[in-house]
Amino acid sequence: DAKTTQPPSMDCAEGRAANLPCNHSTISGNEYVYWYRQIHSQGPQYIIHGLKNNETNEMASLIITEDRKSSTLILPHATLRDTAVYYCIVRVGDQAGTALIFGKGTTLSVSS
Amino acid sequence: NAGVTQTPKFRVLKTGQSMTLLCAQDMNHEYMYWYRQDPGMGLRLIHYSVGEGTTAKGEVPDGYNVSRLKKQNFLLGLESAAPSQTSVYFCASSPLGGGPTSRTFGSGTRLTVV
Fold first, then answer.
1. C-beta atoms of A102 and B105 within 8 A
2. Residue from A34, A49, A62, A100 whose CB has the most chain B CBs within 10 Å, to mutate
3. How crowded is residue A29: how many other Cβ atoms within 10 Å of its Cβ?
4. Which end of chain A is more exposed for a tag (fewer CB within 10 A), N or C?
5. Which chain B residue has its CA at the smallest distance from A95's CA?
Protein backbone atom coordinates (compact mmCIF):
# COMPACT_ATOMS: atom_id res chain seq x y z
CA ASP A 1 0.00 0.00 0.00
CA ALA A 2 1.20 3.53 -0.84
CA LYS A 3 2.52 5.68 1.96
CA THR A 4 0.66 8.86 2.84
CA THR A 5 1.82 12.13 4.37
CA GLN A 6 -0.48 14.40 6.37
CA PRO A 7 0.17 17.49 8.48
CA PRO A 8 0.12 16.59 12.18
CA SER A 9 -2.43 19.23 13.15
CA MET A 10 -4.81 21.86 11.79
CA ASP A 11 -7.19 24.40 13.27
CA CYS A 12 -10.53 25.54 11.91
CA ALA A 13 -13.19 27.99 13.05
CA GLU A 14 -16.68 26.61 13.55
CA GLY A 15 -18.84 27.10 10.48
CA ARG A 16 -15.88 27.45 8.13
CA ALA A 17 -14.67 24.86 5.67
CA ALA A 18 -11.93 22.54 6.85
CA ASN A 19 -9.54 21.42 4.12
CA LEU A 20 -7.34 18.51 5.10
CA PRO A 21 -4.52 17.63 2.67
CA CYS A 22 -2.90 14.28 2.02
CA ASN A 23 0.10 13.47 -0.15
CA HIS A 24 0.37 10.04 -1.71
CA SER A 25 2.95 10.49 -4.46
CA THR A 26 3.64 6.75 -4.86
CA ILE A 27 0.01 5.76 -5.37
CA SER A 28 -0.60 3.03 -7.93
CA GLY A 29 -3.27 3.13 -10.61
CA ASN A 30 -5.54 0.63 -8.84
CA GLU A 31 -5.26 2.11 -5.35
CA TYR A 32 -8.11 4.01 -3.76
CA VAL A 33 -7.89 6.93 -1.34
CA TYR A 34 -9.89 6.38 1.86
CA TRP A 35 -10.56 8.80 4.68
CA TYR A 36 -11.43 7.80 8.22
CA ARG A 37 -11.72 9.85 11.36
CA GLN A 38 -11.39 8.99 15.02
CA ILE A 39 -13.14 11.09 17.61
CA HIS A 40 -11.48 10.96 21.00
CA SER A 41 -11.80 7.57 22.72
CA GLN A 42 -13.94 6.12 19.94
CA GLY A 43 -13.22 3.67 17.15
CA PRO A 44 -12.42 4.97 13.64
CA GLN A 45 -15.32 5.97 11.42
CA TYR A 46 -15.33 5.75 7.61
CA ILE A 47 -15.90 9.10 5.88
CA ILE A 48 -15.41 8.82 2.12
CA HIS A 49 -13.27 7.23 -0.57
CA GLY A 50 -12.38 7.72 -4.23
CA LEU A 51 -10.24 6.44 -7.08
CA LYS A 52 -9.75 9.35 -9.47
CA ASN A 53 -12.93 11.38 -9.59
CA ASN A 54 -14.01 13.86 -6.95
CA GLU A 55 -16.56 12.45 -4.55
CA THR A 56 -19.16 13.94 -2.23
CA ASN A 57 -21.42 12.43 0.40
CA GLU A 58 -23.40 13.71 3.36
CA MET A 59 -20.29 14.01 5.50
CA ALA A 60 -17.60 15.46 3.23
CA SER A 61 -16.12 16.01 -0.22
CA LEU A 62 -12.96 14.42 -1.57
CA ILE A 63 -10.87 16.22 -4.18
CA ILE A 64 -8.20 14.13 -5.92
CA THR A 65 -5.64 15.85 -8.14
CA GLU A 66 -5.44 14.83 -11.77
CA ASP A 67 -2.09 13.07 -11.26
CA ARG A 68 -3.58 11.38 -8.14
CA LYS A 69 -0.50 12.22 -6.09
CA SER A 70 -2.47 14.21 -3.54
CA SER A 71 -5.99 14.72 -2.27
CA THR A 72 -7.97 17.02 0.00
CA LEU A 73 -10.81 16.14 2.34
CA ILE A 74 -13.25 19.00 2.71
CA LEU A 75 -15.67 19.39 5.60
CA PRO A 76 -17.82 22.24 4.21
CA HIS A 77 -19.14 23.63 7.48
CA ALA A 78 -17.05 22.34 10.36
CA THR A 79 -18.69 21.95 13.77
CA LEU A 80 -17.20 21.32 17.19
CA ARG A 81 -18.15 17.66 16.81
CA ASP A 82 -15.78 17.40 13.84
CA THR A 83 -12.81 17.74 16.18
CA ALA A 84 -10.99 14.45 15.62
CA VAL A 85 -7.95 12.75 14.11
CA TYR A 86 -8.38 12.32 10.36
CA TYR A 87 -6.60 9.50 8.57
CA CYS A 88 -5.85 9.31 4.87
CA ILE A 89 -5.32 5.71 3.72
CA VAL A 90 -4.33 4.49 0.28
CA ARG A 91 -4.90 0.86 -0.63
CA VAL A 92 -6.19 -1.57 -3.21
CA GLY A 93 -9.77 -2.53 -2.36
CA ASP A 94 -10.18 -4.68 0.72
CA GLN A 95 -8.63 -8.11 0.56
CA ALA A 96 -9.82 -10.28 3.41
CA GLY A 97 -8.02 -9.52 6.63
CA THR A 98 -5.54 -7.06 5.23
CA ALA A 99 -4.72 -4.16 7.47
CA LEU A 100 -5.89 -0.61 7.11
CA ILE A 101 -2.60 1.27 7.59
CA PHE A 102 -3.74 4.29 9.58
CA GLY A 103 -0.54 6.24 10.15
CA LYS A 104 -0.60 9.20 12.55
CA GLY A 105 -3.21 11.30 10.75
CA THR A 106 -4.10 14.97 11.15
CA THR A 107 -5.57 16.25 14.40
CA LEU A 108 -8.27 18.74 13.45
CA SER A 109 -9.32 21.17 16.18
CA VAL A 110 -12.54 23.09 15.54
CA SER A 111 -13.12 26.06 17.81
CA SER A 112 -16.00 28.47 18.31
CA ASN B 1 -28.71 -2.76 16.91
CA ALA B 2 -25.56 -2.65 19.03
CA GLY B 3 -23.01 -3.09 16.21
CA VAL B 4 -19.63 -4.05 17.68
CA THR B 5 -19.44 -4.37 21.46
CA GLN B 6 -16.19 -4.74 23.39
CA THR B 7 -15.84 -5.87 26.98
CA PRO B 8 -14.38 -4.78 29.28
CA LYS B 9 -13.96 -1.07 28.54
CA PHE B 10 -11.12 -0.61 31.03
CA ARG B 11 -8.74 -3.02 32.75
CA VAL B 12 -5.57 -2.83 34.79
CA LEU B 13 -3.36 -5.93 34.87
CA LYS B 14 -0.20 -6.79 36.70
CA THR B 15 2.76 -8.02 34.67
CA GLY B 16 2.43 -11.74 34.07
CA GLN B 17 -1.33 -11.91 34.54
CA SER B 18 -3.59 -13.21 31.81
CA MET B 19 -6.88 -11.92 30.48
CA THR B 20 -9.29 -12.20 27.58
CA LEU B 21 -10.91 -9.34 25.71
CA LEU B 22 -14.28 -10.08 24.15
CA CYS B 23 -15.62 -8.65 20.91
CA ALA B 24 -19.21 -9.33 19.90
CA GLN B 25 -20.97 -8.21 16.73
CA ASP B 26 -24.65 -8.57 15.84
CA MET B 27 -24.42 -7.74 12.13
CA ASN B 28 -23.69 -11.29 10.90
CA HIS B 29 -20.32 -10.11 9.58
CA GLU B 30 -17.87 -12.70 8.30
CA TYR B 31 -14.65 -10.82 9.03
CA MET B 32 -13.44 -9.68 12.42
CA TYR B 33 -10.25 -7.89 13.44
CA TRP B 34 -8.30 -6.91 16.54
CA TYR B 35 -6.19 -3.73 16.49
CA ARG B 36 -4.10 -1.93 19.06
CA GLN B 37 -3.50 1.81 19.20
CA ASP B 38 -0.65 3.39 21.10
CA PRO B 39 -0.44 7.11 21.96
CA GLY B 40 0.09 9.27 18.90
CA MET B 41 0.00 6.25 16.62
CA GLY B 42 -2.46 4.81 14.16
CA LEU B 43 -4.09 1.43 14.55
CA ARG B 44 -2.02 -1.72 14.04
CA LEU B 45 -3.59 -5.06 13.18
CA ILE B 46 -2.93 -7.82 15.71
CA HIS B 47 -4.97 -10.78 14.43
CA TYR B 48 -7.97 -11.22 12.21
CA SER B 49 -10.53 -13.84 11.23
CA VAL B 50 -12.24 -14.43 7.90
CA GLY B 51 -14.84 -16.78 9.35
CA GLU B 52 -15.90 -18.99 12.22
CA GLY B 53 -13.08 -21.28 13.28
CA THR B 54 -10.38 -19.41 11.33
CA THR B 55 -7.78 -16.92 12.51
CA ALA B 56 -4.67 -15.34 11.05
CA LYS B 57 -1.79 -13.13 12.17
CA GLY B 58 -1.67 -9.43 11.44
CA GLU B 59 1.16 -6.91 11.78
CA VAL B 60 1.89 -7.28 15.50
CA PRO B 61 0.68 -10.75 16.66
CA ASP B 62 3.38 -11.62 19.21
CA GLY B 63 2.15 -12.00 22.78
CA TYR B 64 -1.49 -12.42 21.75
CA ASN B 65 -3.76 -15.31 20.86
CA VAL B 66 -7.25 -15.28 19.39
CA SER B 67 -10.20 -17.56 18.92
CA ARG B 68 -13.36 -17.42 16.81
CA LEU B 69 -15.50 -20.31 18.05
CA LYS B 70 -18.73 -18.50 17.20
CA LYS B 71 -19.30 -16.24 14.21
CA GLN B 72 -20.43 -13.34 16.33
CA ASN B 73 -17.54 -13.44 18.84
CA PHE B 74 -13.82 -12.81 18.49
CA LEU B 75 -11.69 -13.23 21.60
CA LEU B 76 -8.24 -11.71 22.15
CA GLY B 77 -6.10 -13.33 24.82
CA LEU B 78 -3.01 -12.17 26.64
CA GLU B 79 -1.37 -15.17 28.31
CA SER B 80 1.31 -13.25 30.22
CA ALA B 81 0.75 -9.51 30.10
CA ALA B 82 3.72 -7.18 29.69
CA PRO B 83 3.92 -3.38 30.14
CA SER B 84 4.52 -3.10 26.37
CA GLN B 85 0.96 -4.33 25.88
CA THR B 86 -0.45 -1.25 27.54
CA SER B 87 -2.62 0.15 24.79
CA VAL B 88 -6.14 0.79 23.57
CA TYR B 89 -7.55 -2.25 21.78
CA PHE B 90 -10.15 -1.94 19.06
CA CYS B 91 -12.21 -4.67 17.50
CA ALA B 92 -13.79 -4.31 14.08
CA SER B 93 -15.94 -6.37 11.74
CA SER B 94 -16.92 -6.27 8.09
CA PRO B 95 -19.22 -8.32 5.86
CA LEU B 96 -18.13 -10.86 3.27
CA GLY B 97 -16.83 -8.93 0.29
CA GLY B 98 -17.17 -5.65 2.12
CA GLY B 99 -14.49 -3.03 1.67
CA PRO B 100 -13.03 -0.51 4.10
CA THR B 101 -16.25 1.46 3.80
CA SER B 102 -18.13 -1.26 5.63
CA ARG B 103 -15.70 -1.87 8.45
CA THR B 104 -17.40 -1.17 11.79
CA PHE B 105 -15.31 -0.52 14.88
CA GLY B 106 -16.06 -0.98 18.55
CA SER B 107 -15.47 1.75 21.10
CA GLY B 108 -12.26 0.25 22.45
CA THR B 109 -10.78 -1.38 25.56
CA ARG B 110 -8.20 0.61 27.47
CA LEU B 111 -5.67 -1.81 29.00
CA THR B 112 -2.92 -0.83 31.39
CA VAL B 113 -0.26 -3.34 32.43
CA VAL B 114 1.71 -2.35 35.52
1. no
2. A100
3. 8
4. C
5. B99
B66-113 per-position pLDDT tens digit:
999 999 999 999 999 999 999 999 999 988 776 667 788 999 999 999
Q: Give per-residue pLDDT as tens, A29-57.
A: 888 999 999 998 788 999 999 999 899 99
pLDDT in tens, A53-109: 899 999 999 999 999 999 999 999 999 999 999 999 988 766 655 667 788 899 999
pLDDT for B64 beyond 90 = yes
Q: How far apart are CA B20 and CA B63, in angstroms?
A: 12
Amino acid at B106: G
Task: Please tell me the total number of residues recorded for chain B in this structure.
Answer: 114
Q: Which residues pair with A11 in a beta bridge?
A: A109
Q: Which amino acid is at B68?
A: R
Do A56 and A62 meet the contact criterion of CB atoms below 8 Å apart?
yes
Distance CA A36, CA A59 (A): 11
CA–CA dist B98, B93 (Å, integer)? 10
Mutate to test the interface with A, among B105, B107, B110, B111 (most CBs of A within 10 A): B105
Kindly give the pairing relationship between strand A106-111 and strand A9-13: parallel
